[in-house]
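Aim 2, interim progress: modelling of the zinc ion-bound target.
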Amino acid sequence: MKISKLNKNTVLKGGIILDPINNIEKKGDLYIKDGKINSLFKIDPPKEANVIDCKGLIITHGFMDMHVHFREPGREDKETLNSGSMAALKGGFTRVCVMPNTQPPLDSPESMRYIIDRSEECPIHIHPIGSISKGQEGKELTEMGEMIAEGAVAFSDDGLPVENSRIMRRALEYSNMFGVPIINHAEDLCLKDDGVMHEGVVSTQLGLKSSPGITESNMIHRDLELADLTQSRLHVPHVSSSRSVEHINVMKNKNNNITAEVSPHHLFFTDEDLTGFDTNLKVAPPIRSNSDRKALIKGVKDGTINCIATDHAPHTSEEKEKTFDLAPFGMIGLESCFGVVNKVLVKENKIKLNKLIQLLTCNPRKNLGFDYDLFKIGTQAEITVLDPNVKWTFTKHDIFSKSKNSPFVGKEMNGKIIFTIVKGYLSEIK
Ligand SMILES: [Zn+2]
Ligand SMILES: [Zn+2]
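Predicted structure of the complex, ligand included:
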């Protein structure tokens, strides 16, 4: 990847400008002056401008991932904010939100400030998600107001669920006073027990311990009820089962404060892919049956699920080389995201490219109350340029994360990121 300072006058020439807000997908040029959007379509740049040929390429908003794990502080051997930023840029992401299950957890105003300060040195925008409970122990709520003042954009104990319903209710009420969503990792730990995969025919064949889909949907149902009771903002992460989609769909029609995300791996793989015992496919919640996968795709189509998030979760190869029972949960996902979701949703399931781009750009920004009209004149340029039609094979060389735990290595992708512009830098992806 080549990162260089953006020329004072930069023209993206002859591409297809895809504006996900206004549903525009039209051939044209974009002129960036002093790092800001100056004009689109009819542009009048000076002669000395740096012109980048975008023929055949889509010019759109920078992607945002509202769910990644960058392991800083504490496990910098797996990922840092800097290495995670490179993985993000490779995937077309100009903005991410980092989960707080670091060592120690991000559960104080000072820890929020730490991420904000560190992110200033990084080539993308990074926002911290604060812990719901102190030490992520599920007992005592964190100082949410002060954490928001230092930069927290949401709250989650991700990695772990909030098991206590009373604590979950208080968390929803408290964070809602500030208009900030709660993101609960929904897994009933009693039902999950020591399950390492989805319960079904395949788990029986493989002889692996498993947990059923209701391990997730039970808790999502509770969270939806609590969000409705308290009229609070709930964001449901990494939805994996068909019943969860049903529950969210019902409650979404009553309460427009509910939003939900799906991860590329739950859209791409099924439990049958686990027959090779690849520990990179061990994730929480687990990869489920093909009917669950189809329900997720339908949930995207009808708007029940409104954004894509990778749940990028780096682990060392030593940890992932353990047996399936012992390896940690999680896979990386930033670098492979677009090639996967474009293939599954647009090419195979006929979802419009414009809609997919919404799931990667304006929708996650809306979910967190961020500015999302990135083509507005005068906005700091935050742009992703991609080729939606190129087929390619994902290899280890495409991984910029410090960790290599991707089950997508060797898989065929469809669609590729060509370059991004963010924070005054041009990053050319190789
Ligand atoms: Zn989670
Ligand atoms: Zn996560």
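The longest helix spans residues 214-230. The CA atoms of residues 105 and 258 lie 26 Å apart.
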